[in-house]
Amino acid sequence: MHLISIVVPCYNEQETVALFYDATSKVCENLKMGYEIIFVNDGSKDNTLQELIKLYELHKNHVRVIDFSRNFGKESGLLAGLEAARGDFITVMDADLQDPPSFIPKMLEIMETQDIDIVGTRRVTRKGEPKIRSFFAREFYKLINKFSEVEIVDGARDFRMMKRSVVDSILRLKEYNRFSKGIFAWVGYKTVYLEYENVERVAGETSWSFWKLFAYAIDGIVAFTIAPLRIATLLGLFISGVSFVMILFVFFRTLIFKDPVAGWPSMVIIIMFLGGIQLLALGIIGEYLSKTYMEVKNRPSYIVRKTYE
Ligand code: UDP
Ligand code: MG
Hints:
By secondary structure, the chain is an alpha/beta fold. It has helices at about 15-30, 50-60, 75-85, 105-115, 130-145, 165-170, 180-185, 210-225, 225-255, 265-295, and strands spanning about 5-10, 35-40, 65-70, 90, 120-125, 155-165, 190-195, 305-309.
């Protein structure tokens, strides 16, 4: 008999995990295969762990809980869940029911009847989300897709079902800075997307502030393209070229017209402009250097305090 694993990273989700379990298990009971739900408690500060242990005590044959030693972020939670999953089909879902469990049978059906390895989901609307956030999100996708070698689909959620072989491939990517949207796209495989309208979370609050998302976007760009480094190089080349022409111009003008002191304002402007560009380029290098530093340290992505299974 086949097994489906459902991986659920949870951070401060005390109100939602029980609701999530009820809704999801109801759907899974009707599948013609076994199921396991792997909750990863990502260092929650509320009673999420107690709620999860309650679920585990009640449904030992379907629930597994991985408790992190602190908050390591959703990406680490996903990784821990994927590593623990034993299923032939593996699904990744949010705890807040923004990912409708009713999609699971549909996804399985597509996998079983067609030659497809991944069924993803994408939101076609961003209803209920602040306008400014939607704007930045769309610009982010435009930017990263222009430069990165893999296509990251706009609005694609992490909610997806994958075959065992896909998850094995994902786990071969050992990087510390994990940008899942990119990693999912990078491994390739035959993918179809189901589309749906944005659903708001059932309870609790999103843990993503605008700045957290902004930092996440920078992480994604740094993780999946080196285009900013190249832009810095090209900018440097261009400015050097322009400066060379200007040097010749100023040199000969001084020789011919003997006019050495004029042009102080323009000089200050140029110095400031170049100083700005240099700092920007240094900052870009710093972004990549810091990521390299973290990779070289080779730390584990998460630490497990205890597992319940
Ligand atoms: N999450 C997590 N660790 C974190 C932040 C979030 O495991 O540090 C989980 C969270 O519990 C939820 C999922 O990641 O199951 C998505 O988070 P959220 O709903 O806050 O994000 P949104 O849906 O607003 O993008
Ligand atoms: Mg959510």
